[in-house]
Each structure stands twice: as C-alpha cells, then as structure tokens.
Write a structure and sequence with these properties.
Arc Repressor Mutant, subunit A; 9 helices; globular; 199 residues; 2 domains; DNA-binding; mainly alpha; transcription cis-regulatory region binding
C-alpha cells in the first residue's frame, strides 16, 4: 500500500473513531454528519466520500464483514467442504475475539441495539453477506442449493452474533463470552453439518 492509500485509510479510521465516540456520547440520531466533520477537522464532503451512509460511520468494517465468509469458502484447502471451512474460520475468529463476530465494548453494543436505524442497516449487511456467500457457493453447485446453504450458514452466524451482543450488554467480558459461545457454536455448526448436501 502506497503512502497516499495509507493516509486515506488513516483518515477514514480517524473519522470513524470520532463519529463512534460522538454517537456513543450523544446518540446516533442526535449527531449530524456536519458535526462529525467539524470534530474530525475535515470537510463534510470528506466524510461522505469515505462514508456515503451515516450508518457506515459506525459499521465501518461492513465491506470486510460482507466478503468474509465467501472468502473463507473460496480460499479453503483442497478437500475441505464449504461448511467445514466456515466452522474452522468461526472458531479461529472466536479465539481472536474478532469484532466481526460481534465482540465490542458495552457502549458500542448499546449504540447499535438502541438505534432502529443501525439495527436496520445491520440486517441489510447480514443479507448482503448471505448473497455474497451464495454467489461463491453457486460456483460449485446449483443456485438453489447455494442459496439454501448460505441462508442456513448466515442464520447460524446471526444467532451467534446476537448472543455475543446480548452477553456484552449483560456485562460479560470477552473471555467469558468466548467460553460461553464455544459450546453454542459447536451445537450450531453440528446442526448445519447434518443438513442434506452439507458435505
């Protein structure tokens, strides 16, 4: 990555961090894009160039989040089934307490769950993730089977994501949450593996 790209990424991250702090302090609907720009010391257009949607100032890793599961399946090792790859990747991410699984601070989790706008955007992102995963799966099977498999896999990820959020809001720390999630994830992925055509 060149210097210009690094500076753009740094600016983007700084804007997102400042916006998230303002939203957490005042509420998502109470802060405008102009206020974010002023706090970040940039023009309003700079904010909207990096974040066309206000919600994505908070959900700033949405592109990586949407692409992640499709990339896991596309990059899996020879002989590994798609669901086995998704299972492996989930537990790798769980060991890292990855933000893509829902790990965050209580204040951030509260910001998301208390905003209908952010919850609606999060649902859209999960749906976009499902479509992206189905597109990758469809390279190896028919479209209906790919769509069905993706729908089941995303349902598991969404349920586990919500559980992380719920436990975060209940005051559990990341290690407690990961310990509690492990058997739930085993149960969920075992159920996925029993679906017809899972292998």
């Amino acid at each position: 990555m060149g210097l210009r790209d690094r500076r753009k990424r740094q600016t983007r991250q700084e804007i997102s961090d400042i916006a998230t702090r303002l939203f957490t302090e005042r509420g998502f609907d109470e802060v405008t894009i102009a206020q974010v720009a002023a706090a970040a010391g940039v023009a309003k257009m700079t904010v909207t160039n990096h974040f066309p949607r206000k919600e994505d100032l908070v959900l700033d890793i949405h592109e990586e989040f949407i692409a992640r599961l499709g990339e896991v399946v596309a990059g899996r090792t020879p002989g590994e089934s798609p669901l086995a790859a998704l299972r492996r990747a989930y537990f790798e991410d769980l060991a890292r307490r990855d933000a893509m699984l829902g790990f965050s601070s209580p204040s951030f989790a509260r910001l998301i769950t208390e905003s209908p706008t952010l919850l609606a955007r999060l649902r859209e992102i999960h749906e976009e993730r499902e479509a992206a995963l189905a597109a990758v799966l469809a390279r190896e099977t028919d479209e209906f089977t790919a769509a069905l498999t993706a729908a089941h896999a995303i349902a598991v990820h969404r349920a586990l994501f919500r559980e992380v959020q719920r436990r975060t809001l209940a005051g559990q720390d990341a290690d407690e949450i990961a310990a509690a999630l492990e058997p739930l994830a085993v149960q969920a992925f075992d159920a996925l593996q029993r679906l017809p055509g899972a292998d």
